[in-house]
Design the sequence.
């Protein structure tokens, strides 16, 4: 009996290692009706504090009115991620709060962060974000476009 129980347990463990893990299958969502207020922001130098071993950095604050078209996914369960494309010139950190429909969070260029999980109940997903953008002192150029977008992973 003991040998049979060991064989069953070993078989169950082997089955667990063979089961493929869930693979993300992101679908880009249309957020073309989202917009920032003001439409353009300028990075400002942060004050240097001698008592802290922090290098010089720049930051900007912007309000983003989010409007994501989810009509193709109404009634489906899954996760919505905000994605910030990789910025080769200077990594950007975004930290945001929301009014509650989407989740607050943080991401760095080249990453994605969860902003919604559950069933998509309507044709749009809307919220307003207060976003702090931060960069190191190597931020270059008077004008740069940050490429945020949203992706949906269906369950």
Sequence:
């Amino acid at each position: 009996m003991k040998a049979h129980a060991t064989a069953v347990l070993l078989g169950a463990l082997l089955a667990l290692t063979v089961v493929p893990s869930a693979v993300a299958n992101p679908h880009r969502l249309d957020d073309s009706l989202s917009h920032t207020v003001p439409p353009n922001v300028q990075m400002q130098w942060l004050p240097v504090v001698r008592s802290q071993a922090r290098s010089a950095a720049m930051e900007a604050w912007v309000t983003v009115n989010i409007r994501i078209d989810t009509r193709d996914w109404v009634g489906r369960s899954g996760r919505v991620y905000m994605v910030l494309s990789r910025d080769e010139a200077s990594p950007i950190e975004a930290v945001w709060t929301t009014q509650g429909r989407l989740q607050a969070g943080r991401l760095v260029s080249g990453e994605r962060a969860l902003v919604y999980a559950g069933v998509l109940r309507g044709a749009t997903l809307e919220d307003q974000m207060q976003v702090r953008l931060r960069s190191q002192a190597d931020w270059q150029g008077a004008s740069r476009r940050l490429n945020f977008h949203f992706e949906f992973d269906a369950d």
The chain has a mean pLDDT of 80.
